[in-house]
Amino acid sequence: MWDPSWQDGTGSLPDQLAHELRHRIARGSISSGSLLPSERALAAQAGVSRTTVGLAIDLLEAGGWCTRRARSRAIVCLPDIHEQGLAPRPASNAAFDPFSALVAAPAALLEDAVERARSRLTPHLLGDGRLLGGLAELRAGIADRLTADGLATTREQVIITNGAMGALSAMLDATRGPVLVEDPTYHVALRLLASRSRRVVAWGRGPSWDVDALHGVLRREKPSVAYLIPDFHNPTGALAGNPERDALAGLERRVPLIVIDETLRELDLRDGDRNLDRPAMPRHLAELLPDAVTIGGFSKIVWSGLRIGWVRAPQRAQRESLRRFTDVQPVPVFEQLIATELLPHLDEIIATRTGRLRVQRDALLAGLRGHGLQVVTPPGGLVAWVDLGAPVADELVARLAPHGVLAAPGREFGSAHRHARFLRVPFTSDVGVLAQATERIAGELEVVRRRKA
Asked: Each residue of 210-253: pLDDT tens digit?
């Protein structure tokens, strides 16, 4: 028997059962291509009637989550990518840009959200359109999601910003001094630091955090800010475990400001046991660092064009700095209304997106490994960190560009001498585009290797 809590949602019993089955398919607990249990077996497992199961399967089939023929059991599948609107470009487009891990909108849900937001816009037209700190309803919704995920948060602690990097930008503007970053790290964060002439203190990152090395860096450099990505790190995809996080407890006593980037936390692609859910996510790092600032946003999970970011700032002084920033660079109220309308659908969007991303990730890795390239399976996020075996990334990128494959060399993500053998390749495009890009990468890499021999 299933845990009866699946019936705690809203809607009719068939709607709730269909939602639960979609959730299990997207998370990998029920694998694409397998047969759904018979209606009799599903009814027994879920504790409902066969009629309810039949109606739920009808809903799954209508949404593209399974197919069936007369008198046969349903075959599990993932919805067509073009109907779902989750690929940033169609497979027929020759250009593949791994430099930007773009995600396209869940078209139907976003269009509906836009219409509902438009109907709520009129009262805001009577003012100047600026909401200090952000729309109260949106802030409350984000606070509720964080609290439900284990990080107790109040609406007052949440500030809405122009994207997650807008949040980081605001925090950098409020500080001075060296900034500690993982090496490698997110290239956009490095650009923000360079634009402000901030000195970067590199903390080397491998498959896990080297906390002993961190303490050495802190003693030598005494950074004023630390920027950390514990959840599906960009670009390596690494997920810091609870022991690693525990080792950072008390870090705020050594670094005045810690910024935790959680923009990818909800893109968990780990495969669970076929009969069990995947392992639980590690606790939020901010649970161990109570003074740390946490940033996130909608662009990585909903749509790259929805530039809604947020900051969880536990200290009043932090919030005052952020409010001054948002007063100068206000977030469009219409976009905030759209994001508010999407909040009730985020779990559905995330489940669909992660299901599709898992398929695309596995296809990309199979193609790369088929050509002898080394790549660790990223447990989540949007990108793979590909080891080329030699420091040839820059030359390879130059050869790929004329063919429309605008790749991202490792040097863009940190110390050039450490990452010249790596290429960052997102798997946000559909399988057809990824296959074309993989063949081109492998072919041009072989040319580069022969020239170096």
From this structure: 999 999 999 999 999 999 999 999 999 999 999 999 999 999 99
Q: Quick one: tokens of 199?
A: 């000195």
Burial of 207: CB neighbours in 10 Å, binned 0-12, 13-18, 19+: exposed
Tokens standing for residue 265: 């936390």
CATH number at residue 217: 3.40.640.10
Instruction: Let me know if residue 85 belongs to a domain.
Output: no
Q: Which amino acid is residue 236, in one-letter code?
A: T
361 and 224 fall within a common domain: no
Q: Which residues contact 390 (CB under 8 A, 6 or more apart)?
A: 421, 449, 452
With CA atoms as reference, report the closest residue to 168 among 291, 300, 261.
Answer: 261
Instruction: Give just the sign of the alpha carbon dihedral 141, 144, 148, 152.
Output: positive
What is the DSSP-derived secondary structure letter of residue 271? P
Query: Phi and psi at residue 212, in whole multiples of 5°?
Result: -60, -45
With beta carbons less than 8 A apart as the criterion, state whether 102 and 295 touch: no
Range of the domain at 38: 4-77
Torsional sign, CA 165, 171, 172, 177:
negative
DSSP 232: S
Output b/e per residue, 351-378; b: 16+ Cβ within 10 A: bbbbbbbbbbbebbbebbeeeebebeeb
> Are residues 207 and 310 located together in one domain of the fold?
yes
Tell me whether residue 99 is in a domain: no
Kindly report whether the peptide bond that precedes residue 235 is cis, defined as omega within 30 degrees of 0: yes
pLDDT per residue as tens digits for the range 351-395: 888 888 888 899 889 999 999 999 999 999 999 999 999 999 999
Residues 317 and 404 in one domain: no
Place of tokens 């002993």: 212
> In the listed set 60, 77, 94, which residue is the last one of a domain according to the structure?
77
